[in-house]
Amino acid sequence: MRSGEELDGFEGEASSTSMISGASSPYQPTTEPVSQRRGLAGLRCDPDYLRGALGCLKVAQVILALIAFICIETIMECSPCEGLYFFEFVSCSAFVVTGVLLILFSLNLHVRIPQINWNLTIFGFLATAVYAVNTFLAVQKWRLSIHQQSASDYIRARTESRDVDGRPEIQRLDT
């Protein structure tokens, strides 16, 4: 076993007792503050963000999205409901996403979670939304062209069946 002197460290090396006791040694602990990760403990609301322009806009967006969602839910009957369902989806999605962003920024969670690049995340979300709108419009255009094509095929078939002059194999009965 080692004696007490051997436990103090090698020559030129700080021992654990000298570090704790504060004895003079060239290996003193650093004076820089060590950030202790507290996780999500100690969350506080940031009133400066809520009073600022961006905070006020977020609060207004949440309130307006909630009002829109409540108004759309009061409708009992509808004839063409597709637009109603789309508005319901958009208002509910806007309420949820904007509410989450409001909580995220008002509690400064975007600063406490540095592992996520928030600018890139928001850009990715916006890019996904643009692609979704583009896909929706492309499908609508495709459906409209299919519908118009089938209608024009029907009209063409009816007119061609009445055109017997151009087709000698079909004889007219009225002559």
Overview of the structural elements:
With 175 residues, this protein is mainly α. The protein has seven helices and no strands.
Features:
elongated, 175 residues
Largest sheet: none
Mean pLDDT rating: 75
Number of strands: 0
| Amino- and carboxy-terminal Cα gap | 128 Å
Q: Using only CA atoms, what is the Rg?
A: 36 Å
The count of helical stretches stands at 7
Instruction: State the shape.
Output: elongated
- How much of the sequence is in beta strands? under 5%
Unreliably modeled segments: none
Order of helices and strands: HHHHHHH
- Class per helix and strand makeup: mainly alpha
Percent of residues in helices: 55-70%
Topology summary:
Layout (H helix, E strand, L loop, with lengths): L3 H4 L8 H6 L25 H5 L1 H21 L8 H25 L2 H4 L5 H45 L13
Helix pairs in contact: 4-5
Care to give the gist of this entry?
With about 180 residues, the chain is mainly α.
